[in-house]
Design brief:
The chain has eight helices and 26 strands. It has helices at residues 5-8, 18-27, 174-185, 235-243, 251-263, 344-354, 359-365, 373-388; strands spanning 2-4, 31-36, 46-55, 63-68, 73-78, 88-93, 97-99, 105-107, 111-113, 116-118, 120-122, 139-140, 159-163, 198-202, 208-211, 217-226, 267-271, 279-284, 290-292, 298-300, 306-310, 313-317, 321-322, 335-342, 391-394, 397-399. The strands form seven sheets. Strands 3, 4, 5, 6, 11 and 12 form a six-stranded antiparallel β-sheet that branches. Strands 14, 16, 17, 24, 25 and 26 form a six-stranded mixed β-sheet that branches. Strands 15-18-21-22-23 form a five-stranded mixed β-sheet. It is elongated, with a radius of gyration of 25 Å.
């Protein structure tokens, strides 16, 4: 499992350097098999102040700037449309090397651009591995002094590849790993912090839950969130997911992935308006039933499979992957958020038979915390409300 130091710090204070943390993880039985420090390739980047910015005399899109890097004032030719005097920016000085998408790198050298000398480059976010944004140069807070090493600002994270043995499902989350480090360093584990505001309408008035006894679902909690605005995630969220190798999908789905990696509880979000009958049924599949999962693959189910149904149609392979027909998209307005405990053996067998292995199935197969479902659903609902708006209906529909 990949863990991020920045993410771990959300749960426990970690003033130690990466090497000390690595040794601590190994000493508590969480062997570190690899380490990534992407900031190292950007160590020569510095914060600079744009003092002047004038149009290039021989170009309609270039600008000639003077910038101070904390030691001296230099001239830099810049083609970004948003460059302006007074900005605090990221400077790649002479000698700095920037990696390129093809695996090579560009070394900053003195150059002439349309006859004007340039002694470095003002950087866009995609050029320095911060995001995919190439709309202009990165503009920083003016309070940051010129000459500050850019890598010291926290945009780059160190991550570890941790070998979590099958008997340690408690360590398949950042909170689980942080708990071990808190004990190792004899310091407290931070409480989960979130604020959930509930509407006066009851969740049970919007949707009905039915769980088939003995089907393999021992606990099921569902919350309803109305009037969300599905769209791009805020940078803090997409950045954390990127640090552990997960791509951003949209703000609602990203929160479910965040909760999975944060506290280890798999969740699934349904577009409520695509669920027929205002009813969610958890049951064994019927032989021959079919579902198209969100990876757009068709599967035929058997009576041994466990499914979540809308009305009477499978909408999700329990603990493995959701169906494409009820997935969250940019048009989603109302969300049903599932947090459940599914039998590990059932999840493992259907995951293997269907050829679908996911981060969620990996955790269900190893047995998640049976007491986590209600808080995980409340935690996720509060965060969805924070990043996507909407009204969380009062309470939850539950089975236990």
């Amino acid at each position: 499992m990949k863990v991020s130091i920045s993410w771990l710090k959300r749960h426990v204070d970690l003033p130690e350097d990466a090497e000390t943390i690595e040794k601590a993880l190994t000493s508590v039985g969480l062997e570190v098999e690899g380490k990534e420090e992407p900031g190292k390739v950007y160590e020569k980047l510095v914060v600079a102040k744009v003092l002047t910015c004038e149009p290039h005399p021989d170009s309609d899109h270039l600008h000639v700037t003077t910038v101070n890097d904390g030691k001296e004032t230099i001239q830099v030719v810049c083609g970004a449309p948003n460059v302006a005097a007074g900005q605090t920016v990221v400077l790649a000085p002479l000698g700095a090397e920037l990696p390129t998408p093809d695996g090579k790198s560009i070394k900053m050298k003195k150059a002439k651009m349309r006859g004007v000398e340039s002694f470095g480059m003002l950087c866009a976010e995609d050029e320095i591995g911060v995001s995919n944004d190439h709309g202009g140069i990165m503009v920083l807070d003016d309070k940051i002094p010129a000459g500050t090493p850019f890598v010291s600002l926290g945009y780059y994270d160190t991550t570890f590849e941790v070998n979590v043995t099958p008997n340690r499902p408690d360590a398949l989350s950042h909170r689980g790993v942080a708990r071990e480090l808190a004990a190792k360093f004899n310091r407290p584990l931070k409480p989960l912090q979130y604020t959930l505001s509930e509407d006066s309408a009851e969740a049970s008035s919007a949707i009905k839950l039915e769980v088939e006894p003995g089907c393999g679902c021992s606990r099921y909690v569902g919350r309803v969130i109305r009037d969300v605005k599905a769209g791009p995630s805020p940078e803090w969220l997409s950045k954390l997911l990127r640090s552990v190798g997960m791509s951003s999908v949209n703000n609602v789905v990203d929160i479910t992935n965040f909760i999975l990696m944060d506290i280890g509880q798999p969740l699934h979000s349904f577009d409520m308006d695509k669920l027929s009958g205002n009813t969610v049924r958890v049951r064994r599949a019927r032989n021959g039933e079919k579902i198209t999962t969100i990876d757009h693959k068709d599967h035929e189910l058997t009576g041994n499979d466990l499914v979540i149904c809308d009305g009477d149609r499978p909408a999700c392979v329990a603990g493995v992957m959701g169906g494409v027909e009820s997935e969250i998209t940019e048009t989603t307005k109302n969300v049903f958020l599932e947090s459940a405990y599914f039998n590990p053996t059932i999840v493992r067998k259907q995951s293997k038979r269907l050829g679908i292995a996911t981060d969620s199935s990996y955790r269900f197969e190893r047995d998640i915390d049976f007491a986590m479902q209600a808080e995980a659903d409340a935690y996720a609902s509060a965060l969805i409300q924070e990043v996507a708006g909407g009204k969380v209906l009062k309470g939850a529909v539950e089975y236990t």
